[in-house]
Amino acid sequence: MPRKNILLGGGVAALIVILLATFLYSAKTPNSDKPAEKIVLKAGHTTNTNEPYHLGLLEMARIVNEASHGRVEIQIFPSMQLGSEKAMIEGLLLGTIDIVVTANGSATNFVPQLGVLDLPFLFRDRSHMYTVMDGDVGKELEKSMEARGFHLLSFYEAGVRHIMTTRKPINTYEDLQGLKIRTMPVPAHIASFNAFGANAVAVDYGELYGGLQTGLVDGAEAANTNYDLKKFYEVAPHWAQIGWVILVADVIMSEKKFHSLPRDIQELLMSAGRQSAEFERKAYADSDNSLLSVLQSKGVKVTYPDPSPFREASKKVYEEFISTEKDRELLNSILNQ
User: Hey, which CATH number is domain 39-335, 2.60.120.10, 3.40.190.170, 3.60.15.10, 3.40.630.10?
Assistant: First the structure.
């Protein structure tokens, strides 16, 4: 064979060896251009899909999905599909659920320092509440949550709360005396209605409509929004605008889950949490503010009792639940803003 052909054949063989080696190396070496694995987060809450909690989570999911170019998906389970608020909070710690929106009173069972937010007539109005929760007090409570294994994404709200009754309208403080009123299973809420002269009764929220209908309770507390959406007005048509509390809602993850995520995703979730809080709060305020005339058109009898006696009775609740110097400092920080 001519020398030229031998060289050509050797060159081809060498090329084949190089290509084979390159293939084997690339098969073993991760491709830096390979898309990151998709992250799916499971989020739960207890309200209907047309209520502000759900709308806020939808906004959070949208922001996260778009900003991550589809890398992160938040799957939302409304209407207690994943259990009660207490069960879902426990699920965070067990790792069976990733994000929960819960009324602050339920979170207080796990983070006692949050209890200050459950006191009656604490916030002057929504603006005051937002200033407090987005400021130093909110940061202080965030640290308390972290110490108990929870990571705060944002503070939502659960409405300005009033009092519904089935048969007797509440025109004055005296009209509430002795009535059986359902409250959330939150110590400060129970103490508040007992201080107001009512008898606080524990009834599961899912059974409240039936409890009002059968006379198990004479009334309950709620915001305009859930009073309308749950159709409580059908069985409790008397609606006293008292604004006894503005409820804070906590949007939380477990610290363990949050810090297991890549740093850029952590930052994205925090940003989306803040943006969705603005969206949710506006949705709640708009809903609450627009519903009163709608409710009246449905036959609801609206009354406006003087809040002064209720505020005076609330002092007992403050004395009971503000028991340490640290609690007092936190309360004063809120009241003085």
Answer: 3.40.190.170
